[in-house]
Each structure stands twice: as structure tokens, then as C-alpha cells.
């Protein structure tokens, strides 16, 4: 009787004969997966960067508004200081205040 190897035995013996080709095929598959992972990470980081840029823009707008508010408040305190120092004006106390009612 003639011995016929099974398909699995044929595949295994063929793979063992071509070790270098098998190693190259595994390296190509590993390289393909690393390209897929790198592309995915790049897309995630690009999306995060865009989100952070939007947040930065919002914070810049808020900063400008706070600067405007600070300048407005500084102007009021400057006017109060000039009125106190140069014009000798002071805030009225309760006994000097009068309420005027309109008919």
C-alpha cells in the first residue's frame, strides 16, 4: 500500500521548506496591522487636536471679554480716585441722601 500524506502534513512540510518566505509573510502582515493602528491613532489625535483648537478659540474669546470687563472696571475706579483726590468728592452717607419720588 502507498502512503498518502494528509493535506495538513503537506502544508506543514511545505511551510517548513520555505521558512524565509513564511517569515516575510508574517512580517508583511504585522507591518500592515501596524499601519492600520498608526492611521487610526493619527485620526483620533487629529480629531482631538481640532476639538482642543475649538476650546482654545472659546477660551481666547472669553479672555478678551474678561480683559474688556477689567478695563471697564479699572476705568470706574480711576474716575472714583480722581473724584476723591482732585475734586475732593466722596460718596454720600445715609444722612445726606434724599429720595425723590416722581408723581
TrEMBL record:
It comes from Motilimonas cestriensis. Coiled coil: none annotated. This is Cell division protein FtsL. Keywords: Cell cycle, Cell division, Cell inner membrane, Cell membrane, Membrane, Transmembrane, Transmembrane helix. The chain crosses the membrane at residues 20-39. It is found in: Cell inner membrane; Cell membrane. The keyword Protein transport does not apply. The keyword Cell membrane applies. GO terms for biological process: cell division. InterPro entries: Cell_div_FtsL. The lineage of its organism: Bacteria, Pseudomonadati, Pseudomonadota, Gammaproteobacteria, Alteromonadales. NCBIfam families: ftsL_broad (TIGR02209). It is a single-pass type II membrane protein. Essential cell division protein. May link together the upstream cell division proteins, which are predominantly cytoplasmic, with the downstream cell division proteins, which are predominantly periplasmic. Belongs to the FtsL family. Pfam families: FtsL (PF04999). It comes from the Bacteria. Part of a complex composed of FtsB, FtsL and FtsQ.
Amino acid at each position: 500500500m502507498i502512503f498518502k500524506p494528509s493535506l495538513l502534513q503537506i502544508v506543514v512540510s511545505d511551510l517548513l521548506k520555505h521558512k524565509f518566505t513564511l517569515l516575510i509573510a508574517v512580517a508583511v502582515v504585522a507591518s500592515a496591522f501596524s499601519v492600520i493602528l498608526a492611521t487610526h491613532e493619527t485620526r483620533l489625535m487629529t480629531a482631538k487636536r481640532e476639538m482642543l483648537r475649538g476650546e482654545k478659540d472659546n477660551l481666547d474669546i472669553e479672555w478678551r471679554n474678561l480683559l474688556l470687563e477689567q478695563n471697564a472696571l479699572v476705568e470706574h475706579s480711576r474716575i472714583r480716585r480722581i473724584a476723591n483726590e482732585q475734586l475732593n468728592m466722596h460718596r454720600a452717607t445715609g444722612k445726606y441722601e434724599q429720595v425723590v419720588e416722581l408723581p
